[in-house]
Automatic annotation (TrEMBL):
Alphabetized InterPro entries for the sequence: SBP (IPR006059)
Keyword terms of this UniProt record: Signal, Transport
Record family assignment: Belongs to the bacterial solute-binding protein 1 family.
Family matches, as SUPFAM superfamilies: Periplasmic binding protein-like II
Source species: Dactylosporangium darangshiense
Source superkingdom: Bacteria
Protein name: Sugar ABC transporter substrate-binding protein
Length: 465
């Protein structure tokens, strides 16, 4: 009887589907979509039709940018596309998408109708490469690529050492400090982690806003586990403390998250929550959208964030009330800032690969970078230029941008070039969040378990040392 059960189950399933045409149609559609998506990925990776599409050097380019539709950044991208068309004669159509961007890109892949160009976060390289929807970029095919800052190319490098995008924009992070609070308390700009902690304690205990209430804190931390926010925020401090996620040699990685320096960095961070109690409440569930108002409403006075918030804080808090300064060196003796930005991705299956190369060339040119920077407005799609010949001060008169530019060039560092960074970011966010949320936690033991999870994921991705 046991040998007949699979047949009986199949007959029952077949009968049920025949009785429900709508369900049968939906199931068939789902299978078809899966097969189409698989076909695109296999074609792009294996040199099939997706990567050998007939070429037309005059074909228009479809450009997708990960920005809110109707916003100022979309307008800037369209200006860039218009200038590109005027220079090359190649038409370019811009589509701005923000919500569910990656899902919509996957849908386009399933329909074998990818855009030619995607301007998207550097952190998405691993995921897009894994799907097989981006093509390799040879620097020799993109004139002007030799003028890009060396560190910016790290953001476009895959785990195999090849490039799968062209850098377009960069950014680093700095401390936003309530200058009015600091000066009222007679304290200097912090030069060490000890100074930084002392400033946080003063902001928490010495009533810097003068309202007579104990309602202010030092650190504003977006420490949610959603999308790995806690890991994203803490990365710069982990590196500055001498810790690391991995050690790397010849493209192979070994976990370093449980090293003595990594444990010490996490313990320092945990102490702000548990001993000093200088972190604004709710940090372990806050994303950046909840963290921004904590700083600008006067609940916390120290926020480690990016230059994109300056325009917002100028309007909601006041430009004269805060300052942007580099984070001080940690126990490693260095101050290291997470580097991020956007790449121009040349998508697989394009009918105009020559046009893709020309667009990338224009985007990194002095003219393209200048358009993308959009002066001192909030419409920029280039936060910091990647072209080393662009003089930042000639485009932006707000000298605070120079702080971020210097941080990026002197101490910017991108996340490790593993095939897919996402699972590492998420598991480390989960672990660090749990450690600081439980003051009785054993940091060494928890990071050791995380190290073991890292080792398993590295092996899964084929890059374990």
């Amino acid at each position: 009887m046991s040998g007949r059960r699979p047949t009986i189950r199949l007959l029952a399933k077949h009968t049920a589907l025949r009785a429900n045409p709508a369900k049968r149609k939906a199931l068939l559609a789902m299978h078809a979509a899966v097969l189409v998506a698989a076909g695109l990925v296999l074609g792009a990776c294996g040199g099939g039709s997706a990567s050998n599409a007939p070429q037309d050097a005059a074909a228009p380019l479809e450009i997708w940018v990960r920005k809110p539709p109707g916003g100022t950044a979309e307008k800037t991208t369209k200006q860039l596309a218009t200038a590109f068309t005027a220079k090359t004669g190649i038409k370019a159509n811009v589509t701005a998408l923000f919500d569910d961007f990656e899902t919509k890109l996957q849908q386009a892949a399933a329909q074998k109708h990818l855009p030619d160009i995607v301007i998207n976060d550097t952190a998405q390289l691993g995921s897009m490469l894994k799907q097989g929807i981006v093509r390799e970029v040879k620097q020799a095919d993109v004139p002007g690529s030799d003028k890009l800052t060396p560190v910016s190319w790290d953001a476009a490098k895959g785990p195999d050492g090849k490039y799968y995008g062209v850098p377009n924009s960069a950014q680093s992070f700095a401390l936003f400090i309530r200058k009015d609070w600091r000066e009222k308390l007679g304290l200097a700009v912090p030069k060490s982690w000890a100074d930084l902690d002392a400033l946080a304690v003063a902001f928490t205990t010495k009533d810097p806003d003068g309202n007579g209430k104990a309602d202010t804190y030092g650190y504003d931390v977006p420490g949610s586990t959603k999308r790995g926010y806690m890991s994203w925020y803490f990365t710069s401090f982990l590196w500055s403390g001498g810790g690391d996620y991995f050690t790397e040699q010849n493209g192979k990685f070994a976990p370093a998250i449980a090293s003595a320096a990594s444990v010490a960095s996490v313990d320092w961070f945990k102490a702000q929550f548990c001993q000093a109690k200088t972190v604004a409440p709710g940090a372990v569930t806050m994303e950046t959208t909840q963290a921004h108002p904590v700083f600008e409403s006067g609940k916390a006075g120290i926020y480690f964030t990016g230059p994109y918030n300056m325009a917002r804080f100028d309007g909601n808090l006041g430009k004269d009330k805060y300052e942007t300064v580099p984070a001080p060196p940690g126990p490693s003796g260095k101050s290291v800032s997470l580097a991020e930005g956007e790449n121009t991705y040349l998508m697989a299956g394009s009918k105009n690969q020559a046009g893709q190369n020309k667009f990338a060339e224009f985007a990194i040119s002095v003219e393209g970078q200048t358009i993308g920077m959009a002066g001192d407005t909030d419409g920029n799609i280039v936060r910091l230029p990647v072209n080393s010949t662009v003089t930042l001060s000639s485009v932006r008169k707000d000298t605070r941008w120079q702080v971020f530019d210097e941080i990026y060039k002197q101490s910017g560092r991108y996340t490790p070039a593993v095939p897919d960074w996402t699972p590492f970011r998420q598991t480390s966010a989960d672990t660090i969040n749990a450690i600081v949320a439980n003051c009785g936690s054993d940091t060494k033991a928890e990071l050791t378990k995380l190290s073991q999870a890292f080792q398993a994921e590295l092996a899964k991705q084929g890059v374990a040392a």
